[in-house]
From TrEMBL, chains A, B:
Catalysed reactions listed for this entry: Release of a C-terminal amino acid with broad specificity, except for -Pro
InterPro entries per the UniProt record, alphabetical: Peptidase_M32_Taq
Annotated Zn(2+) binding sites: H263, H267, E293
Organism: Halorhabdus utahensis (strain DSM 12940 / JCM 11049 / AX-2)
Transmembrane annotation, as ranges: none
Active-site residues annotated for this sequence: E264 (proton donor/acceptor)
GO molecular function: metal ion binding; metallocarboxypeptidase activity
Presence of keyword Zinc: yes
Similarity annotation: Belongs to the peptidase M32 family.
Keywords attached to this entry: Carboxypeptidase, Hydrolase, Metal-binding, Metalloprotease, Protease, Zinc
Protein name: Metal-dependent carboxypeptidase
Function: Broad specificity carboxypetidase that releases amino acids sequentially from the C-terminus, including neutral, aromatic, polar and basic residues.
Enzyme Commission code: 3.4.17.19
EC top class, as a word: hydrolase
């Protein structure tokens, strides 16, 4: 049997690579749709994407793959080969249990849901969206039951986005964030400290674009393997050979494009740090959403919102935007905690996580059947008041603000906070090992940090489950200690606590 | 059996649509590679494209499709359904006879050939390219024999690009062009007439871009279903929902970008005129290369190089480029016949076809085994001297100038001339039916011509074989009469013959 292993493994790799290449082609079609495609192209693009999805599903669930996997499970393999088999088996099993017609119904319903949600949000009319949301909740419950009828359906959905850390860990982390951040947010509100606002006014979009391009240059973006474009919602797409960032520009919010670009830059560095020679296999793919979000948050927050960065970068901002603020004022401004913060994507590093806790609690109750769709608006508003001390006047600024549920996505939100928590842990480990970074950031030197992240995170692809990857990188199990220490110190200092 | 027809036909359509959607996804990947992709993306893109090609080949040759086709051939179908079956059968049969490993060998050899050809052309070193060319000729001969061992292999290859008109028609047309154009070109050379050159100098690329965008506006390009970008070699790509043009700018040749844009606009109007509701089936696809090239040549030459167009458009050119020539001088300039014309893509409407005749004769002899690869350079140069009265000093300006053979493409060149000939026939029919166009072109009105072309050509997709489509549109069989009449009159007048 040992003699057959290489053949079966080679067949598996070949099959898996075809799968990846088709998935990446689909990724390009989505990028193009959001960045380049003329509006009239939508009907054809939907069909092209659906054809690729169907082919992908067929390749992922086919009998040849099942046979190769069965054969390989009985064979001695190298650790890297074991990792590949583990990852492919997991995806194969999940997909194989889901009836093709359910996949198609979910795809159709989410397509139909998008314009309904857009209209409901524009009209501040939750009731017109409620039946669609109900259907999506029902379909996802069915989907989770198809994958594993014996487990909490929300847990099954959550594992689509974070397959290894476990829902119990997510729950523990989010509860701890809630318990420790709510009083800190209260203290900030009560501090009486206000931050300066040197970036008021309107700023030319071309100047903003020149600024973010220079920021990418300085941070070390590899333009030979990437692009920057604009889209309605910023995102990152691509592979280790071609990682593309988008941003958006608002004349009145010049720093939003900068921080969103640095956030997406973090995602792109992860893609670009994956090993070239494992392209198309799990060893050349990123380790899901918690780790991905840790990379974007690390660059956005631990670098892009640090005092050292603003000491280094403020002259460049001044060159492009003509704002003559001190580095200290700029730093204080970009870290301002808003007391009327209703919108998740505009939130600071503290209140952000309350937006996530609230969504996590609501979507879990929805999928679990403990909350009726009709109750979502008032539960949302009550929790906003409890966690953030502010109550939305409209559902448009409340439970209709995010696109995730409309996309049929439940269980995704927690990875935003899990990623932020991991960012702090990784940053601390890197800082302890090769830092302190303050002086290097102040000098605009980022190579050592890039190298540490590539060596300790990116180059492993999916070789390790999430918790093992974290332990390999930091020497410790996954913990919120570093994040809480970081925000306590940072905001304590900013708000004289 | 009649009762089963609709089911089998629906299955066929579904299968064929999947095929088309995958092909169109591949088309987007190629567009992106030439227009948007950072250089570093090449290795991943090659693999994605190869995966889609393999899936396409598998779908096109699979047994389900063979069964549906066999079932439908025994059934009474509507004419439109018959057309779909005819087109799909043809492609299925061709693909099914070609061994997959031969497809892969051709794909690999052409990938490897590209850099060899680029280097050989740069070094003017035909000998280093000769072994690759020999291999490509051999592979294509094998390919043609796999499809049909009983027919002239060049004929089989030609039918990949023009499946219906027949190689005998191509031969007859090209011989007639050679016989009638060679003396006309001699007369032009002997006329002693020289044309004015008002577009000498350097012209800003941004000004040129503004000019070609305005030209597209004026001609009626649908920006909601299309784009204009730049690439190394101009091309058109896409579907009836999303047709994308590229052009390129040379500071010293401001009219090249204009005429290449109008040429590609012609291709795009064909795509955009295909019926939306047949997207993904042969009824929603263009009728191969002769007809496609007729659309590009019609707009490029019969409109874009006409006196009426320059009377209308010269003020716009003046606005953007600052050239103050008369419409008459501009018209004469863009129709100048160069006496030292070595390069096909720079040729005028007369000498262009001698470039094609020469390539047709050489590639046919190569595939037929009547010409050795080593003889290509001197045969090329001899024919240049015979047909055009000029002998290239280098192979870089001779037999190494085109990319087609390097791409493993033999039998494509004739469609350029066949398309020009058809353009004249279609333009004459439209002009007779709804013209004369001179006054409408002079007034910048193109709607009637668009409508005529859409109604008589575009909307039919692949419903009719080429010769039937031509007869439906013009009321006559395919003929070179109109083209020869057109150039004889036009160049007779320009050169006082």
């Amino acid at each position: 049997m040992g003699a057959k292993a290489p053949d079966a493994y080679a067949e598996l790799l070949d099959h898996v690579q075809q799968l990846s290449y088709v998935a990446d082609a689909g990724g390009l079609l989505r990028w193009d749709q959001q960045v380049m495609m003329p509006d009239g192209g939508t009907p054809a693009r939907s069909k092209q994407q659906s054809a690729l999805s169907t082919l992908h599903h067929d390749l992922l669930t086919d009998d040849d793959l099942a046979d190769s996997l069965a054969e390989l499970e009985a064979v001695d393999l190298e650790p890297e080969q074991q990792a590949v088999v583990r990852e492919v088996s997991r995806e194969h099993e999940r997909a194989r249990n889901v009836p093709r017609d359910l996949v198609e119904r979910i795809s159709e319903t989410t397509s139909e849901a998008l314009p309904v949600w857009e209209q409901a949000r524009a009209d501040d009319d939750f009731e017109s969206f409620a039946p669609v949301l109900e259907e999506l909740v029902e379909l996802r419950r069915e989907y989770a039951e198809a994958i594993d009828p014996d487990r909490d359906p929300y847990e099954v959905l959550f594992e689509e986005f974070e397959p290894y850390l476990g829902l119990d860990t997510a729950e523990r982390i989010l509860e701890r964030l809630r318990d420790e951040l709510v009083p800190l947010i209260d203290d900030v509100a009560d501090s009486g400290v206000t931050q300066p606002l040197p970036f008021e006014g309107t700023f030319d979009v071309d100047d903003q674009e020149a600024l973010v391009r220079e920021a990418l240059d300085e941070l070390g973006f590899d333009w030979n393997r990437g692009r920057l474009d604009t889209s309605a919602h910023p995102f990152t797409s691509g592979t280790q050979f071609d990682a593309r960032i988008t941003t958006r520009f608002d004349e009145e919010k010049p720093l939003d494009s900068l921080s969103s670009t640095i956030h997406e830059f973090g995602h792109a560095t992860y893609s670009l740090g994956l090993p070239d020679d494992h392209y198309g296999t799990p060893l050349g793919e990123s380790r899901d959403l918690t780790v991905h979000e840790s990379q974007s948050r690390l660059w956005e927050n631990h670098i892009g919102r640090s005092q050292a960065f603003w000491e280094y970068f403020m002259p460049t901002v001044e060159d492009h935007l003509g704002v003559g603020a001190s580095a200290e004022d700029a730093y204080r401004s970009v870290n301002r905690v808003y007391d009327d913060n209703l919108i998740r994507v505009e939130a600071d590093e503290l209140t952000y996580h309350m937006h996530i806790v609230l969504r996590f609690e609501i979507e879990r109750a929805l999928i679990g059947g403990d909350l009726d769709v009709s109750e979502v608006p008032h539960v949302w508003n009550d929790k906003m008041e409890e966690y953030l001390g502010v109550r939305p006047d409209t559902d448009a600024e409340g439970c209709l603000q995010d696109i995730h549920w409309t996309n049929g996505t439940f269980g995704y939100f927690p990875t935003y906070s899990l990623g932020s928590v991991l960012a702090a842990q990784l940053y601390d480990a890197a800082d302890a090992e090769i830092g302190p970074f303050d002086d290097t950031v102040r000098a605009g030197e980022f190579d050592a940090l890039h190298e540490w992240l590539t060596e300790n995170v990116h180059q492993h692809g999916k070789r390790y489950p999430t918790e093992d990857l974290i332990e390999e990188a930091t020497g410790e199990t996954y913990t919120a200690d570093y994040f809480l220490e970081y925000v306590t110190e940072k905001y304590g200092s900013l708000y004289d606590l």
